[in-house]
Amino acid sequence: GFKCGIVGLPNVGKSTLFNALTRTAAAQAANYPFCTIEPNTGEVGVPDPRLDKIATIGKSAQIVPTRITFVDIAGLVRGASKGEGLGNQFLANIREVDAVVHVLRCFQDDDVTHVEGRIDPVADAETVETELMLSDLDSLERRVVAARKKAAGGDRDAKALLPVMEAALACLQAGRPARTLDLSPEDREMLAGLTLLTAKPVLYVCNVDEPSAATGNEYSRAVEAMAKTQGAMAVTISAAIEAEIAQLSDAEEIEFLEGMGLHEPGLDRLIRAGYDLLGLVTYFTVGPKEARAWTITRGTKAPGAAGVIHSDFERGFIRAQTIAYDDYVALGGEAAAKEAGKARDEGKEYVVQDGDILLFRFNA
Ligand code: GDP
Q: Per the database record, which ranges form the OBG-type G domain (predicted)?
């Protein structure tokens, strides 16, 4: 599955957020079950109102959401790239995730120590990013030397890879994270193969004080401005509020949110933003037994989408009956969609669209 790593300096609210995420998911009863894999790893159902709607129309007995994994990666301090604190472990943990959720302290509280002695989320982001860039520089400098030698000796792979490596190196040397490189899709794939920490997509989470949860504050606005210049995303959330919400019943939650001027839990926005960040889309399968959401990377073709369910589906793929979400809902289900000619038969080259309702035909 897809993994988001939660990072940030100490005392910014990472654990509060992670616990709220996992507890809320647990409290969301049967529909969005949560399970703990390791103490610091949690799988969360991706909230999707479309799935509930499809299940109602399809009279499905069960709802199975698609999932995303969050990992609480503690241990970053200044000097991590030189092995300070839990530095090496920290960097290894980041290497394993698909995207980075970077929590920034945007709240003031004299009872909670700030490791740098002041509230400045933009500077904090730079501190963390600098450690990641130093680590990338270190590993890349060594690899570029080796690749140059190989390329000079005629090695084709090294020759192909070298331009991307050189570009990434120049980018890092200029003090910019590798994800800001403007690359062709092929080069982007090569960059991903280098497993650089700063090549991963980043979502900034502005952890604001409770009164600012609906509006944001001067700190979160500064982070949003920074994110814009980096092509990154930012979400404003109050971890303290989310922790409170996690304790409430559904009815209490609605009342509490309205009282705060909020429409939905910040965690729902965070989970969806994480999903977008990873370039993921959802397709659905529906039957009397269950309505289920499945995750694929944007651009996946029908056989690959089938393979998410079972490798046999991909191997023996014949075609996929496809109904667009809007048609399914407007017409009131599969039978009516078929009658109206809105159930298409799609073949191997079909690129699955977000919200498609699919039924696969395959050779067993
Ligand atoms: P971590 O070290 O980044 O995991 O931070 P924690 O989640 O352990 O939080 C550190 C301290 O900050 C704890 O005492 C939290 O209760 C407190 N804290 C976290 N989020 C907020 C918040 O939104 N507002 C306030 N006032 N305190 C918070």
A: 2-257
pTM score of the predicted model: 0.84
**C-alpha distances out from residue 5 to 35, 60, 74, 115, 202, Å:** 17, 34, 10, 21, 10
Residue 12 marked ligand-binding: yes
Q: Do the beta carbons of residue 353 and residue 281 sit within 8 Å?
A: yes
Q: Is 3-277 a domain of CATH 3.40.50.300?
A: yes
Query: With 60 as the cut, is the pLDDT of residue 27 above it?
Result: no
Atom of ligand 1 nearest to the CA of 9: 3
Confirm whether residue 14 is marked as ligand binding: yes
**Paired sense of beta strands 41-45 and 99-106, if any:** unpaired
Taking Cα atoms as reference points, which of 340, 358, 342, 338 lies closest to residue 350?
358
Helix locations, 174-249, DSSP H: 185-193, 218-230, 239-245
The whole-number average pLDDT for the span 312-330 is: 96
76's tokens: 């970053």
Q: Which CATH architecture has domain 299-362?
A: Roll (3.10)
Q: At residue 34, does pLDDT exceed 50? A: no
Give me ligand 1 centre to Cα 200, in Å: 26
Q: What is the ipTM of this complex?
A: 0.95
Question: How many Å lie between the centroid of ligand 1 and the Cα of residue 20?
Answer: 12
**Residue in 243, 214, 240, 7 with CA at minimum distance from that of residue 107:** 240
| Domain residue extents for the chain | 3-277, 299-362
User: Cα(43) to centroid of ligand 1, in Å?
Assistant: 22
